[in-house]
Fold these 4 entries.
Entry 1:
Amino acid sequence: MTTPQLSTARWRKSSHSTNNGMCVEIATGTGWAAIRDSKNPDGGALLLGPTQYRNFLRSLKNS
């Protein structure tokens, strides 16, 4: 996987985010997805490939 330029990525906040500051944002591109803490956008991001992202979403839905 080529490392994407996350500083120019289009980040979206989760629809399940609350007003208490516990929010995540996601950016996606061809062959990757990145997840970060919305209150600390410069704190790094979790970068996932397609299979990892699919498994991540599946585990959230099953929890």
Entry 2:
Amino acid sequence: MTDREQRRTRAREFDLVLFGATGFTGRLVAEYLVKKRPSLRWALAGRSLDKLERVRNELAALEPSAKELPLVAGDSLDKKAMDGLASRTRVVCTTAGPYARYGSVLLGACAEQGTDYCDLTGETHWVREMIDAHHARAVETGARIVPSCGFDSIPSDLGVLLLHEQLAAKGGRLAEAHYRVRRMKGGASGGTIASGLYAAERMKDPAVRRVMADPFSLSPEGAPERKGHGDWLRPRKDPDTGRWLAPFFMAPVNTRVVRRSNALLGYAYGREFRYDESIDVGRGVAGMARAAATSAGMALSGAVVFGPVRKLAERFLPAPGEGPSREERESGSFEIELLGVGTAGERVRARVGATQDPGYGATSWMLGESALCLAEDALPERGGLLTPASCMGMKLVERLRAAGMTFQAG
């Protein structure tokens, strides 16, 4: 039996370990899992045993069997502890960010141990570092390492996959895809803000800036020519609808993930495939004004990263562990429309959405179902630093539909 087969078939104590369970998003994912799979062989993990016990008590009020949940305490920077954690479970699901600061040791342990892994990162530069450091070893051990399993970047990645499936069923092939945010309402947690500030702080490094500027920064060697694939940074009109479009702040993350999926799927969307993301802000003068204001706001937000402006902003932003209330999460929503154009000019559409706050309510569904998909579903036997579409594909789409999200083709 090969090293890979031994690692993949070795008996494990747990099917799933949720690391970062004491954080704001971690608690939401724990709540989702305990309601969805109370009999799953899983454990709560994090740095503080006392905090883990408090989370377990809160979960037991929702589902009495949760009082028996095992707890695994360990520091994310302690290699021995993370190696031990990864060796005990088939899947690790982690919400402990910023991942560039707290996630590298755990991801590396999973790659080494042949343990499947999913997270919520939107830190493109860190994912590139992890690909370079661990992709080859994860291929050897069979570990399916799947970053960006939340609002970054499941709606984008699986939405484009839906377009591809529609065209492929007709014998066609995608030439381009356009992602349009039609509606988005939600709040922010302290942990997400901290991750964003840390990621922006790293932009002071020229090497990080080069990664972030490269539209194929997550793609394997031999990616298509970069020219013409850059991010939209200014207002523009949609040539198909005449509606005004503003740049989408998550596009520099999502577009790189979609392009990596295309490469990992053997360029199923074609080597000339083009993809972009924008916010649809309406028609006429009002739409133009909203597009200009959104663009200006994105440019201004960069000032928060540096000097006294950042320190002032941090005084008023949520602290790690804080976030939107249950009422705010449940009143949130998002709706995204994707338009696909085939090589022969065919047009297909898809809609992705949820009646939950995109960054927390819906994200806890997306990450929870990604973890369950890795733990329970028959997936292709391929290891490496993968993407939601290239690893879980339509199986995850079906899970998310069953959970209450919209993934509508046509």
Entry 3:
Amino acid sequence: MTARKIAVLGAGSWGTALAMVLAENGHDVRLWTHHQDQADEMIATGKNARYLPDLQLPKNISITSDLALALEGAELINFVVPTKAMRQVASQVLAVFQEAGVTNLPILMHASKGLEQGSHLRISQILEDVFSPLGEAKVVVLSGPSHAEEVAQHDITAITAAGTDQVACDFVQEVFMNDYFRVYTNPDIIGVELGGSLKNIIALGAGALVGAGFGDNAKAALLTRGLAEITRLGVTMGANPLTFMGLSGVGDLVVTATSVHSRNWRAGQQIGQGQSVEEVEAHMGMVVEGLATAVSAYELAQEKGVEMPITQAIYLVIKEGLSIKEVVTALMTRERKGELQFEDNLADLF
């Protein structure tokens, strides 16, 4: 494999794990953090003490807080920052490019999962918007069932690279694939991004059920009906419904909504046990994307006229302070419906 110059922006657990995959594949990787103290510590110790404390970083990862240095000569830029920081970081990258006189954009990819507050834009749309002064951006999303801790420990992982430019998707697939990290391509970037974002809402709910004392029956019902409403909104937004049966749909939903490794599941569990959203966010130490995504998805569903009762329930817990048992009762006593009421009409969408 030809060694490529790749910038990874964001030194959290996922950004670090992906940088490790790329470095182990022989690429020239520059891992950027905007915290100078974190960069200094990682350089000195060879570890990311806050996010992956037990793992030694490959020596061919260059760690820096200098964004221009991280971007220099990069053929691929991987944004792995929280959704709320995406536009700001992308704008900083644009400013570096404009100052350097860059006219040809490298491939842009992201491995984050969320919707922008207010605009409800997917992350690829944020990147396209920010970089529009330099022309049309080739954006790829890397998404699927993947705990950063397990990827960093070389556990078997299968994930999806999605985008409208097949050459760019193939590039991302090539640089990341190895014997423990398998990448499939998918042209349905809408479905892959929405699947990765919306499953965090259901993971919050799954954790909340456990925290409130409900069992496996409730969890199975939540995941199944949660997938139905994810698909419902996704198809309305232009996604292929089959995407939600794949890695970035049911695969990501299962891994995020059933595991203590998931910060969204853990946040939901704490909410189910009676902690406030503010307390959960203060104690988590990392961004819980599902909290903000639940608000954006609820607003988007209202705008599009899409029925998403589970998302609405989580929204009411987050924004209105309702208890988990209150919203569960409301969900269970809704009007009677047929299970395939929506799904039977999928054939009409092709």
Entry 4:
Amino acid sequence: MDSYALLLAATLNAGTVLALAALGLLINEKAGIINLGAEGMMLCAAIAGFAAAVHSGSTWVGFAAGMAAGAALAAAFGVLVIWFNTNQYATGLALSLFGSGFSAFVGVAYVQEKLPPSPQYAIPVLADIPWFGPALFRHHPMVYLTVLFTGALIWFLMRTRSGLVLRSVGESPESSHALGYPVRRIRFLAVLAGGALCGLAGSYLSVVYTPLWVEGMVAGNGWIALALTTFATWRPARVLLGAYLFGGVGQLGFFLQSQGVQVPSQFLSMLQYIAPVVVLAIISRNPAWIRANMPNSIGKPFYPGS
């Protein structure tokens, strides 16, 4: 198989993990909530999904378990920051630390476990096209569902009444409350949806992308997903493109090694983390552009009685 086709295929796989998590965080931030706990939610979802897949033999059961784990942790986060008005940044960091430790503790028994053989997916006819088939049409269905979900999210946010209400809560919760909308409930549902998507990303990582369980296997992808929302200026289509960009950068090291390029492995492992920092540093040179696209109430508590 052509090495460039392999690189593109690996980019789509890696980008799917980032895209799912970043789209979930985007939903949170559209409602005015910033959740720094994505890394912890993804880790707990990864072990929950892997364990469920081991015992059930079903990838989709693993996805469901991962989404449930992510939503459960997000629910705890949502109660704390929405009803008890704890600091969103500190609570998110605590969630990330908790998820890291809890997943390591629970996952000890699953380090040596193996999943049943995964079926080979391929889109009939298209998968047989030279170069394009291996690169684009032999992926797990979740890769294509992520693209479809991105389109559905764009439609939801821009074309539906519910999406407009969600965005209005993120822009001005006080005005939304004055119009009679249940701001806290809307924010909580957004946090649940975001947690479920982060959970799906974590379970996809451990059940399909790797597939195995290793302590700390999310390896910073939650933080990269968080940076993606700012990189994309809170637009779903840009989130998807950015996920593929950063995912491709992460795979570039393996590609260079396969081509015989003599580059220190430590440098190659840093590429995926350097790229978001460089990109964010560049776009931060125009803070007015970021402020124009950022939800106005992001990270700010809401007090209905004030």
